[in-house]
Amino acid sequence: MTVASTSPPLRRPRGDGALAALFVAPAMLGFLVFLLWPTLRGVYLSFTRFNLLTPAEWVGLDNYVRMVNDPIFWDSLTVTVEYVAINIGVQTVSALAIAVLLQRLTQSAVLRGIVLTPYLMSNVVAGIVWLWILDTQLGIGNEIVAGLGFDRIPFLADETWAIPTIAVINVWRHVGYTALLIFAGLQAIPTDMYEAAKVDGASEWRMFWRITMPLLRPVLAVVLIMTVIGSFQVFDTVAVTTAGGPANATNVLQFYIYGSAFGRFQFGYASAMSVALLVVLSAITFLQYRLTRAGHTDLG
Q1: Distance between CA 85 and CA 92 in Å, rounded?
Q2: Is the pLDDT of residue 8 over 80?
Q3: Which CATH number characterizes residue 168's domain?
Q4: Measuring CA to CA, which residue among 270, 227, 241, 248 is closest to residue 128?
Q5: CA nearest neighbour of 250 among 128, 152, 166, 132
Q6: pTM
Q7: What is the number of structural domains in the chain?
Q8: What region holds the ABC transmembrane type-1 domain (predicted)?
């Protein structure tokens, strides 16, 4: 008579779901408390009249109707678009040139650290420093201009110069970080492609347009999406240097929203403009992602 052997039941392996949830929980809590809830609260307030002193009063689409008919809103949006165009154009071209030079000529970690140094400075500090440098009477920048025999330039006090100057200040601060992002993308391009092109007699300029730019497209697309979103949210540099002046020449949309909320206590109207900015940025991001095919790469 044979006795059937009994073996203990196999244990199911313990999953890592609980541990993963534990590690994700702090970030998720921060997302819910500091991002999702304020966003939903802001959308609700955009349909109300609210001044912090009295309960919010539901007004429906009144704030949005007011926004559409507000000439200052459209002027602020125009100023913001002008700033974004200058900032993105100069920053992208400069960052691309720096990244290519770092990749083709030298890959020194010390040099990359120097390029990144301005980004380690806060926008407020950068704004104050450049405010001193570009002061019309005492700034060292205008001292150099005067020393070269030119008239002093009111960089931050003239309607024509103010927005381009603020854009260049922010380019100076962010171009190193953007260049390093592009530099990381350049590192993913196989070097044998450049070697094969050199054997065929291709110049550096031809290799840049036929190899570097096509294969760098996904990275450039992501960089453009990030920089456009950040540029539309410019505030601190304007607040420190010009406070929206002269004559609203630098009254960018974020500064106008801030003034409406904390200067005039029109939190409902400020929320409506914030929601409009959110919609605009979402649409621009979607179009950029689709048109640049940011999710696809030409590297096989």
Answers
A1: 11
A2: no
A3: 1.10.3720.10
A4: 241
A5: 166
A6: 0.87
A7: 1
A8: 77-288
Per-residue pLDDT, 104: 77
Mean pLDDT, all residues of the chain: 89
- Enter the DSSP assignment of 47: T
CA distance 167 to 252: 12
16 domain residue, yes or no: no
243: left (phi over 0), alpha (psi -120 to 50) or beta: left
Q: Which two tokens stand for residue 188?
A: 């993913």
CB of 288 within 8 A of CB of 228?
A: yes
Domain of residue 62 covers: 43-292
- Residue 226 above 60 pLDDT? yes
DSSP H/E element including 180? helix 162-187
On the CB side of 54, CA atoms within 13 Å amount to 9
Task: Please report which confidence band the pLDDT of residue 14 belongs to, taking 50, 70 and 90 as the band edges.
Answer: low
- Residue 174 belongs to some domain of the structure: yes
For the purposes of burial, counting CB atoms within 10 Å of the CB of 280, is it exposed (0-12), middle (13-18) or buried (19 or more)?
A: middle
Q: Determine contact, residues 126/118, Cβ cutoff 8 Å.
A: yes
| Residue 65 maps to a domain | yes
